[in-house]
Each structure stands twice: as structure tokens, then as C-alpha cells.
Amino acid sequence: MIRLMIVDDEPFAVKYLADALMELDWLDAEMIKAYSGREALHKFEEGKIDLLLTDIRMPGMSGMELADLARERWPRCRVIFLTGYDDFGYAQSAIRKGGIDYVLKTEGDEAIISAIRKALDDIAREIDSEEILKRSREQLHLAVPSLQRDYLLQLAQGEVDSLDARIRRFDELEIGLDARRPVQIALGRIDEWGSFVLPGDKALLYYSIQNIAEEYLKESLNFAAFPYDRGRFVWLVQCRAVEERTVADEQAYKLLAGNAEIIQNATKSLLKVPISLILASTPYMWEDLSPRIDMLKIQLAGGAYHDSEVLMRELSDAAGEEQRSSRDFFAENDMRAYLRNLDLLETYLDNGEREACRNLFAELAVKGSVLPDGQEGELLKLELITTMTAFFITYINKRRLASLIGAAFSLEALIQLPVQADLSLTVRHLAAIADSLAEYNGRKQAERTTDLIGRIRQYVNEFLNEELSLTKISELVHLSSPYLSRMYKQTTGQGLLEYVTEVRMNRSKQLLRTSDHKIQDIAALVGLDSAAYFTRLFKKETGVTPQEYRESTVK
């Protein structure tokens, strides 16, 4: 539905044109009427205008001035000037701005309708998906640095695409690394922030450190960098020369290690900020990026010999930790990657999506089943349980759902979950809690929707003689007009304005049967200020005129 505004200082002209347009079955539009430029400007505050039909010559504010203000606020707003011969030159100059047309008043309704069709076609083309994709591609390069950082961070957090998808994304985002080859990793830590204390300053600092590193590495290494969290960053490098893989991997490490201390000194000298670095001992495949960065974080925090400006190499398994099988290592990493995606569970709970919650916990059961045995496995299971418990407690507290505890599940079921050997019983407990929360939210959403529909219908019936535009009703329930229209139609199977028309017709029939009111008075009582339009609408809905209906009901 589009929002169409008609502006003319002659009320009859506005009403006549609005009535004529309302009879067009193909025009799905909300009509806003204004009788001066100033009044139109005031109604601009009620929401976006898609199509403006305005007279040019009006006292106070001309249509040309009004059109300029409309286009300034909504650049995609189409304007149709309703002009006389004296305004023809003005109209011709105005259309050079684009999105503006004109119709001579002497040309009649068909010319106006044709201009509206043309404007609607322009709007449709502009929002066409292919056009959106085309413009998106044209603008993509402006957002590439940010999209690069987001995608690399996604990989670093364990969300790894298939090889084909990764190759395609690297190409789309112009990431200057090879998605097929392993990558050398360096994890950095900002030891002191110096003068870079504000959020905007911190972003600038990350970017400045990246520029310094790139300046020293770009001659021989392909380089990408991104902030990892508050205080840490990641560098990824590959040898630029095409050589036998083992040689290239060794060369990448040597070049990075050889420049690391120089980059540290340059950062301290130029930015007055000390940084620490830990370098992975060997390049890793992209699928292994997340667990290796986690290991580098731990080693940088616990294996450093000085408080700041540390420069170290990744410790081997034998030097840094007990040997673990690859299966156990990746099972642990997979579990943590899963727990980082609890925002997905939050969305499912909020939307009352019970089936999606069940599928998510089925996946959790699989991940829990492959965790290692022994004390290490028990601790990992405890980590999983406490993380999930904390999530549910936070969720309940933030949404004031404490009253649900006891009605749907016990508090003990949440805070005293057993650590089972295979976690299956515990996961079932967690799934049952999630199911209770999702069921509750879904039921409350349905109740709120039912209540909202009831409030709208009550208002329509009580204030039928007043303005009942989509904008007016949406303000009543504090929702946007497009969303309210869509939600009402999805819930009831009937458009909101169709319901308003139905109530008006039913009330009109009642008044025609039971009162002696004149036709024009009945039109006013049901909120239609034009008797002619009321008659046309009544005949369209019932097949007879109001007078014919009245006469047919007389016994």
C-alpha cells in the first residue's frame, strides 16, 4: 500500500479527486487530504508520502515549495502537479528534477489516472528486487572493509563455510588471501590504550596498527587484519610468492616473525601504544582458525614472561598442555562455537518457535555426546550446563518472566541440573525449559494480537463517523501503518480498510432501514463526507443505491 496525498486550496477539488481515485480497484493507496501547503506540511509528520498530487498556485505556500520540501524529506516521493495553462512553464522546469510530472487541469480524470499509473510503475521499478541487487552491487565496494572484518571474525569464531562458498566470499569481499591455502596467524593484544580511550578512538587505533603492520609486510606477504574483541586483534598472512607449499608456509612465518618486533617498535613510537604479539608456530587451515586463536589467547595470557610488549611463539602441545586427541580438541571447539550462537536460541524463544528450539537442542545433544570422558570431559559438560543455565536465568530476568517459574517448571530444574555421563537427560531438561518459555511467549503473542484486533474493531465501531485512515488507527496502537496493515490481514484474512468499509456498510444499512435520515446525513454518520462517493461505494458493495436499498426494505 502506498500513501498518496492530494493538496488543493479548493476543498471540492480535493474531495472530487479522492472520491474518483477510491473507485479504482487497482489503486491500493491510503489517501491523505490537505487544503493548503501548510496543512500538508503538518501532515508530513504522520508518515512518509509516496505520491504527492498538488496544485501549484495556492495561497501561503505554493505547490512548488511543497514539492521541494516533500522531495527533501523523501527523495523517492513522486510528485504530480495539477496545473493551469499559466503554470505550464513552471511545471516543465520542475520535471527536470526527476520523479515529477504534471497534468493540465483541463485534461480531465483520465490524464490524472494515467500520470498516477506512470508514477506507481516508477515506484515499483525502484523497489524491484533486481534493481535493489544492482544498486547493492554498485555500493558494495563502499562497505567492503567492514564486510571483510565481519566475515573474517565469523571464521575466527568457528562459523566456517564450505570451501566453494568460502572461495566465493573471498572473491566477493576482495579478501587478498587464498581460501584454499593455510594461513599464518598472529594474535595481538593492546597493552595500554594511551590517549585512545573513546570508542571512536579505539576503532582508529585498530586501523592505525593495521596500517603500520601492512606497511612492513605488504612487499612479501598478503595480509588481512581485524579486531577480535576489546583489546585484541588478529593478523592473517600468506606468502605472496608462488612456491612449493611447505617452503611457502615456512617463509610466511619467517617474514612475519622477522617484522614483528619492528612493528611493535613502530606502534610504540608513532602511536605511543605498546602491543604484545604471539605467532602461531605453523600455518593452519581455515577450518582450524577458531581453535588455534583460542589457544593463542590462552598462551599469550598465561605463558608471557613480561607484563607488556610480549613477543612470543606458540608453544607446542608438549610444552604448553597435555596431549589431546584431535577428536577431543575439535569436539570441545565445536561445543564452544555452538554456545556462542545462543542469540539464535533467544530469537526462537522470543518468537515462540517451539519446533526450532527442539531442533536446536537435538543438535546440542549430538555435540554433548562426543565430549571426552574423564575429568576434562566432566568439566566441559559442566561448562556447557552452567552456560546454558546462565543464559536462561538472564533471559527470564530481562523479560520479567519470573512468574512463569513454578507454573511451567521448577527453579530447581533450572539451577540443579545433573551432570550426566552422556548429557542426554540434562539436555532433555534444558529442552523442556526452552519449550515452556517458547510456548508461553507464543501464547502471549497470540493473546496480544487478539487483544489488539479487538481494540481496533471496538475503536472503529465507536468512532465510525470520524477519520479512520490507516495512519490514524496505527497511531492508536503504536504500530507503523504498513506493519499494522500486514498483521491485520494475516491474522483475520481481511484487510483493515476492508473491515472499516464493511462496518460502514452495515451501519448504513441499519440507518437506512430504521431511520428517516437523509442520504447525505447517513454518509456523514458513517464517516464519509461526500454523499456522491457514499452512493457509489454503497452500490459497489451491495449492488444497489442507498435509496434503492431503503425502498426495498419498506414493508
TrEMBL record:
SUPFAM superfamilies for this protein = CheY-like, Homeodomain-like
Looking up InterPro entries in the UniProt record yields:
CheY-like_superfamily, Homeodomain-like_sf, HTH_AraC, HTH_AraC-typ_CS, Sig_transdc_resp-reg_receiver, Tscrpt_reg_AraC-type_HTH
Q: Which residues carry this modification: 4-aspartylphosphate?
A: 55
Q: Which CDD domains match?
A: REC_YesN-like
- Name a GO molecular-function annotation: sequence-specific DNA binding
Q: Which domain of life is it from?
A: Bacteria
Query: What residues does the Response regulatory domain cover?
Result: 3-120
Question: What's in the keyword line of the UniProt record?
Answer: DNA-binding, Phosphoprotein, Transcription, Transcription regulation
Q: What is any one GO biological process for this UniProt entry? A: phosphorelay signal transduction system
Domain HTH araC/xylS-type as annotated: residue spans: 454-552
Entries under Gene3D superfamilies matching the protein: 3.40.50.2300, Homeodomain-like (1.10.10.60)
Protein name per the record? DNA-binding response regulator
Native source species: Paenibacillus ferrarius
